[in-house]
Amino acid sequence: MTTLDPDIAARLKRTDDGLVAAVVQQHDTGEVLMLGWMDDEALSRTLTTGRATYWSRSRQEYWAKGDTSGHVQWVKEVRLDCDGDTLLVKVDQVGAACHTGDRTCFDADLLTPAPDGQPSDG
Amino acid sequence: MTTLDPDIAARLKRTDDGLVAAVVQQHDTGEVLMLGWMDDEALSRTLTTGRATYWSRSRQEYWAKGDTSGHVQWVKEVRLDCDGDTLLVKVDQVGAACHTGDRTCFDADLLTPAPDGQPSDG
């Protein structure tokens, strides 16, 4: 049983597993920190507790970011996209977002080397 | 047959449908524009043509953003996340990213009204 607002629940377009993608962004710098997944209950907890909470597909359990690491994500704003299958969660990230210790999950693997003499915009 | 660099292909962790998620961000403002999906071929085309190209799950075809709308996404940088299932594609978006005409797919549906007196950080 989820406690998610029925008006919001009606707008979600879920995967076969009942999930929507959640793009997580640092609210002030605009850094994209990670991609997580939420079901209705995780979204409800995110909205009501003010801490970003996900459904872990690998562990099959709810996961309030920072419970073990201390790297809490305080929710500033949540938006739903035009077709209802992706959330944009703007947060204030405490410490590193990535389990590797990197600030974001996208720091380590750049697929596009900048052409010679053209600094990347990253 | 995909032309994707085998070193990159080896690092991808795909869905059962052979896809990875692509978070698309305006390179200079940091706006998150949309979430798309890419298979190996779409990623290869994105990297080699410099135009963001997706696999359309609804139409089951490749889709070079802007082909019909003119709203092209010029690729500035592509990154892969720590577990290989999500790309961050930084682009220069021509016009609107969203098919509704909005600048981003997240403009229209805010789930978190800011508490009284606390302006949102959006």
TrEMBL record, chains A, B:
<feature type="binding site">
    <location>
        <position position="81"/>
    </location>
    <ligand>
        <name>Mg(2+)</name>
    </ligand>
</feature>
<dbReference type="InterPro" id="IPR026660">
    <property type="entry name" value="PRA-CH"/>
</dbReference>
<keyword id="KW-0378">Hydrolase</keyword>
<comment type="similarity">
    <text>Belongs to the PRA-CH family.</text>
</comment>
<protein>
    <recommendedName>
        <fullName>Phosphoribosyl-AMP cyclohydrolase</fullName>
        <ecNumber>3.5.4.19</ecNumber>
    </recommendedName>
</protein>
<feature type="binding site">
    <location>
        <position position="105"/>
    </location>
    <ligand>
        <name>Zn(2+)</name>
    </ligand>
</feature>
<keyword id="KW-0479">Metal-binding</keyword>
<feature type="binding site">
    <location>
        <position position="98"/>
    </location>
    <ligand>
        <name>Zn(2+)</name>
    </ligand>
</feature>
<keyword id="KW-0368">Histidine biosynthesis</keyword>
<feature type="binding site">
    <location>
        <position position="82"/>
    </location>
    <ligand>
        <name>Zn(2+)</name>
    </ligand>
</feature>
<dbReference type="InterPro" id="IPR038019">
    <property type="entry name" value="PRib_AMP_CycHydrolase_sf"/>
</dbReference>
<comment type="function">
    <text>Catalyzes the hydrolysis of the adenine ring of phosphoribosyl-AMP.</text>
</comment>
<comment type="pathway">
    <text>Amino-acid biosynthesis; L-histidine biosynthesis; L-histidine from 5-phospho-alpha-D-ribose 1-diphosphate: step 3/9.</text>
</comment>
<comment type="subunit">
    <text>Homodimer.</text>
</comment>
<keyword id="KW-0862">Zinc</keyword>
<dbReference type="InterPro" id="IPR002496">
    <property type="entry name" value="PRib_AMP_CycHydrolase_dom"/>
</dbReference>
<keyword id="KW-0460">Magnesium</keyword>
<keyword id="KW-0963">Cytoplasm</keyword>
<feature type="binding site">
    <location>
        <position position="83"/>
    </location>
    <ligand>
        <name>Mg(2+)</name>
    </ligand>
</feature>
<feature type="domain" description="Phosphoribosyl-AMP cyclohydrolase">
    <location>
        <begin position="34"/>
        <end position="106"/>
    </location>
</feature>
<keyword id="KW-0028">Amino-acid biosynthesis</keyword>
<dbReference type="Pfam" id="PF01502">
    <property type="entry name" value="PRA-CH"/>
</dbReference>
<feature type="binding site">
    <location>
        <position position="85"/>
    </location>
    <ligand>
        <name>Mg(2+)</name>
    </ligand>
</feature>
